[in-house]
Each structure stands twice: as C-alpha cells, then as structure tokens.
Write a structure and sequence with these properties.
One of its GO terms (cellular component) is cytosol. Keywords: Methyltransferase, Transferase. GO terms for molecular function: RNA binding; RNA methyltransferase activity. Its EC number is 2.1.1.185. The protein is of the alpha/beta class. It has 2 domains: 69 residues, 60s Ribosomal Protein L30, Chain: A (2-Layer Sandwich); 158 residues, 3-Layer(aba) Sandwich (Alpha/beta knot), CATH 3.40.1280.10. It has 9 helices and 11 strands. It has a 7-stranded parallel β-sheet, with helices on both faces. It has a 4-stranded mixed β-sheet with strand order 1-4-2-3. The protein is elongated.
C-alpha cells in the first residue's frame, strides 16, 4: 500500500545531476535517538504482528489514514489509539530509505528468554557475532517460518531488535524469542549439558548437513558472513557440517544459509519423530 501523495501537477522535478538533499529530521529525534528501552517498529507486517502479540506493549502508534483504515478493515486489535499523521511525519523519523507503509510504533522491547528455557525447544538457532541487522532480521523471519524455539546470541556484538532488523524480520520478532548470553562458548556447553545437540555450520565441515545425523533437541550455530564461526565456537560444537550446493556459486548469504539449514534440520527432526 502506498501512502505517499502524488507529485502535484506542474511541480518541477529535481534538476538532472543535482544531488538529492536529505530530508530534515526533528531536533532530538532522529532514528536511533530513542532510548534503549524503546523498540521502534515500522512497516505493515512488523507493526500489525506486534499489535496481534499480547506480550508486546505498544506505547505510541503513528498511522496514516490509509494504514489506519487497513488496520480496521483487517480487524487488527488496537492497543492504543493511533495518531493519524501524514506520511511525511513518519518519513522524518526514519532513515531516508525506510519503507514504513504508513505505520510506526514505539514499543517496549519483548522480554528475553533464559538459556534454560530456550533449551526446552526442539530446535534452536545460535548466532555467533552476526552484526548486520538486515541479515539478522531475515534470519529471524526464517526462524519464525521454521518454528525455531529461540535464537541465542551474545549481548554484545549483536544488533538491537528494533528498526531495520524488525522490518527485515517482517513480524518474526513476535514469534521467536531472543536469548542473550554473555559468553557464547559457555552457553553452548550448557546447552550440551542439557542434552542439546550443537551443530556448527562451516564451509569446511567434514560432512554435508543433509547427511549428518541430526536429532532433537538441536542447536544450529551460524557465524558472521566472511569470518564464519570463531575458533572457540567451532571447538565447542558437537560437530561441524557444511551445505553442499550443486551450482556454480558454492556459497550463500548467511541469512539464506540459515533458511536452508533450518529446513534441513526441521525435516530431520520430523523424520526422527
């Protein structure tokens, strides 16, 4: 849905070759200037899933007339009365390339899950210092689709669950809890003590993931794009596995690799049933 007004007739276009000027931002409230205890969600899927989530507390909801009507038409529960604004008022609060679709919500962050509780899931995803919010958001979306019980990551060297990450997750944050740990290797050891099989994805792994004996409960560990798993993380895993690809390009973006690995793991768990 496009809430942006059409260019008025006769309005001159930007001269060719002239650089586009950044939109002005309100003093004290550029994106990223919200307090740490506020999660910013924008875009239809991110905001509508948050509104549906009984665990998500919404502090403030900005909506264009079109977006507010769509919320009403689709019977999305409104936890707060939306403030009806023009699209430009949301534009000024976000990065210039943000696609908000007429919705922005200021929320409380969702509570994090303890490692002990996360270990009760049949399938976990562990992220070893993956810092790009677009990649992490796409991974969260795939995790929600593959019914991952939790995503375990370090408290440091991980992007905040807000803004770009939330938009890339397309509502997935409302369905996959996050578990933050101080030391990843120790967390993996604790998972193993609780009976979780810990499998690290590594391009140099001795076997294809599809040929690896997998069982529930299981944790798949992914490293940062380019760097891969850190040495201590590799040593702590029960086993390492690669994903064999038949085409000319033999590597995947980390978010695509996560989606494929989760599908393989979920199929293996279902077969072992």
């Amino acid at each position: 849905m496009n809430d942006r007004p059409n260019r008025p007739a006769g309005r001159p276009s930007r001269p060719a070759g002239r650089p586009r000027q950044p939109r002005p931002r309100p003093a004290g409230r550029p994106f990223g200037a919200w307090p740490d205890d506020v999660a910013i969600l924008y875009g239809w899927h991110s905001v509508s899933e948050a509104l549906r989530n009984p665990r998500r507390k919404i502090r403030r909801l900005l909506a264009t007339e079109n977006a507010a009507k769509r919320l009403e038409d689709e019977s999305i529960p409104l936890k707060v009365k939306p403030e009806i604004v023009r699209p430009g008022e949301i534009d000024r609060l976000l990065d210039p390339d943000a696609v908000h679709q007429g919705l922005l919500a200021e929320c409380d962050p969702l509570p994090a899950l303890s490692l002990a509780k996360a270990a009760e899931s049949d399938l976990l995803l562990v992220l070893d210092q993956i810092t790009d919010p677009h990649n992490v958001g796409a991974i969260v979306r795939s995790a929600a689709a593959m019914k991952v019980g939790a995503i375990v990551t370090t408290a440091r060297h991980s992007p905040a669950a807000t803004g770009v990450l939330a938009k890339s997750a397309s509502g997935g944050l409302e369905h996959v809890p996050l578990c933050f740990v101080g030391n990843l290797a120790r967390a993996l050891e604790e998972l193993k003590e609780r009976g979780v099989q810990v499998v690290g994805l590594d391009s140099e792994g001795p076997a294809d993931l599809a040929d690896t004996a997998l069982r529930a409960p299981m944790a798949l560990v992914l490293g940062a794009e380019g760097k891969g798993l850190r040495q201590l993380t590799r040593q702590t895993c029960d086993s390492l596995a690669r994903i064999d690809l038949p085409g000319a390009i033999v590597s995947l973006n980390v978010s695509n690799a996560a989606a494929l690995a989760l599908y393989i793991a979920r199929r293996a768990i279902a077969r072992a049933g």
